[in-house]
Design goal:
The chain has 749 residues and is α/β, with parallel strands linked by helices. It has twelve helices and 70 strands. Helix 10 packs across helix 11 and helix 10 packs antiparallel against helix 12.
Length: 749
Amino acid sequence: MGPVSEYVSYVPLSGLTETEREVLDAFGTGFRLDLGGRRVRGQVLAGMLTGAYPLGEGAMPALRLDDARVTGRFDLEGRTVETVITLRGCVFERTPALRMARLVSLHLRGCQAPGLRARNLRVASDLVLEDGFTCKGALDLTDATVDGSLRMIGATLRHPGAGALLGARLRVSGSVQATSLRAEGEVRLRGAHIGGSVHLTGARLSHPDGDALEASGLVVEGNLFCDSTARTHFDSAGVVRLTGARIGGDAVFSGAQLHDGVRDKAVLVVPHGKAADRTVLDGDRLRVEGDVKLDAGFTALGSVAVRGARIGGHLLLSGARIGDPSVVAELSACFSAARAVERVPVALLADGIEIGGDVDARGGDWLGRDTDGDPHGALRAYGQVRLVDATVHGSASLSRARLYGPAIDVLFADRLRVGGTLFLRKVRVSGSVRLQNATIGSSLDCSGARLHKPRLRPNGTVKPSLDARVATIGKDLLCSRGFQAIGGVRVRLVEVEKMVSFAGARLGGRTHPDHHRTDKALSAYGLTAHELVLVFPERCPPRGAVILTRARVVSVTDGPALWAATGGVDIEDFAFEAISAQPEVPVRTRLAWLRAVQPDFAPGPYEQLAAVYSDGGEEELAQKVLLERQRRRYAELHIAGRIWGKLQHVTVGFGYRPWLAMLWLLLFWLVGTFWFSFNVMERLDSDQNPVWNPPLLATDLLLPIIDLGQDNKWRMVGPSQWVSGGLIAAGWILATTAATGATRVLKRN
């Protein structure tokens, strides 16, 4: 009778009702008893579990009740219970008190309770709250320990505006099975440690004014499943907060629906404006050893923040919809009004993220093959996608993605590092793509991409649609096969190991006739590459200036449309070793292109082109280029210089056609010979007896310095004076220009 006196607060044996005696008999044998809705006091049940009532010899107690209505207080606070508790379909009128209790097991399948106070509870096996378990108050498992699994499949927790599940620092050795959970109020797992996986597939969590799932610092040894099934979606009205969480496997949000996030305080973003995001998934400093799957219909009507996250596997975004589509109308209005955006909506905030595998946001076809063919299977982002200081050890593919952010940098990825290829094939961008100081291990492939409505400066002017200045690309930069950038492309000081191709690209222009037009279609100042292809559609030349100043390439391929750029082509100090055109053009056409883009003479481009021809063994073409250089040079001097230049051009071709001097000497010699053959002059000195020889006299007059014994021997009178003077002047001019040309030839050789 000792135990009875210890628990005097319980109902005495003599005070038990007939139903309660029936329960006691079943408890002693461990049989299941269906009460059919009859009442039993909670004090009586607690007394049975703690030894308040004597049991027969050989009893094997276990509390197995179905459809009981528990009245009064079911209080096991601080107690140790060594029998199994299995209640099915029972209704508790008052909140059970299990604080600091030590239980072998606790199964409450289909039960209903106004709450459950179980702080510091310890269960030696599974804690089962499933099959329709309903809690209309706080389910408090703070600091609880479950040595098995926590099973809440199909459970319903209702505590709107407060904590529905309080599981801070909860310890579960197995898994948390909460598939199809319904929770109105916050589900709090802050600092919890789960030895297996967390299954929230198809769960519906609702706490619109705060955190729907607050799992900061959560540690999951297995996987985290917040995904959807064919019938039900994981749905969260409120923030899913995983700040600093650790996931040993995958974090799966495939098909999840996240909405009604909390608006964060606006923060400054570079270079101008503030971020205006409503966060629905906060995974800052998240650590995931496997993949993070935000794909297959994942929808976030707000910002997904994963700043500083570390993902060991892949980040999957194919088929995702991130951001609030309603922000696009406001941004488009700003673009149409040429008004810079001050508050930048953010769809994906992944600054400083590190991904061990690939980023896959591309579209695939209906067979799921590895293609970029289906735009419906690609990422759609409404607002800015930020990848500043992000690191992707594999490749990143946004092929066929749709990024909506008119008048802003919709893809902001300064100092992005990608180990493989960054695929932007056939991407459709409303806004600008910014990749300043990015490092791409393989290629940056923008083939077929279309970039419209670029970012606006504070003064309303247009910024580049693709800004990759000071980037480093290990293989190719491909902006070809229908690539279009309304705001132009800036690849200033970019280093590309192999090819830079703009074959078929359309640069510059306007999204709408009333919109601003960029002043620079292509800014490639200081670009370095092995091969540069600048072949634009003939009917669509660059709408703006093409800047190739101080670019360095091995070979360049151009076409007529390049030199028809509406803003001209700046080629000062542009260095290359080989040049070709599509279609091929003669040197005369190239010289015409140079004249068209250089109204003011500069010798560098001519010297560069001549050097390329000369190195290629085409000396005649090189001479034509250098001849044109000299012609343009003298054409811009004062009148005396222009006359002298004209003489050199006509006589010796500025030294590149020395044979012209011989032709002119021969012509003047024939004129002199003919004249003096019919006009014999008198001797100057009667003591001398020179022989009159018209050919020799003409030769002596034409050749300066050399004396052949005919000059100064005859008295030139009448027209012969002018003829002899003309021959002497022609001789000096031709000799001087010939000497100048010879000197230039010697220097060149």
